Amino acid sequence: MPESESAFAALQFLTSVGQPEQLPAESLPELAFAGRSNVGKSSAINALARRRRLAFFSRTPGRTQTINFFELGGRGRLVDLPGYGYARAPRSQREQWERLVGGYLAARRALVGVVVLMDARRPFMPLDAQLLDWLRPAQRRLLVLLSKADKLSRADRAAQLRSACAQLARRDPEARAMLFSSESGEGVAEARTLLEGWLRAAGEE
Asked: Which CATH superfamily is 3-204 part of?
C-alpha cells in the first residue's frame, strides 16, 4: 500500500489517559500495542508509521504509566499501552497498571485487535503469558511481533518463530506471530498490511 494511503502514515497523537474514567469516547476501531518495558514497542510503532521518532515519545517521567492514543487518519486509533515489565515496581503502581490496562482490555468495545511485542530472544516470559491469558476471554484479534529479530541468527529466528506459533496455537488458533525488526525492517511491511486489513474489516462491520 502506498504511504499516502496508509493509516499509519497519518498517525498523530490524540491524548494520554492515566485513569479508566478518562478514556476517550469510542468512535473508531482501535489497535492496542502492548509489551514488556524496553521490548522495542515505541521503535516498532515508529517503524510502522515510517517515522524516525514520533515527537510524543520521550523520557518524560510518568509517561510510562499512561495509555497513549493516536489517530490513524480517521480510519482508526493506535493505542499504546504502558510497558508491563513491572515485577519490581511498588505494589500500588502494579495495581494501578492492572486497573487501567486490564480494564481497557476487558471492556473496550472499540478494540478490534491487540499487538503484543515480545523479545525474539526471550519470548513468552511469565508476564507475556499473563497478558495473553487476560486477552483470551475478550476474543480480540491477536498478533505477536517477535521484536529485535535482527539479533538472532537465521536458524534461531526460524526456531523461535516455530515455537511462538506452536504456543499461540494452543491459546488461540487464529492468532498470528511474525518476526519483526525495526532496525532491519523485517516484518514491518507485513505487519502494517495485516493491521490495515483489521481496520478495514472493522470499518465494514
From this structure: P-loop containing nucleotide triphosphate hydrolases (3.40.50.300)
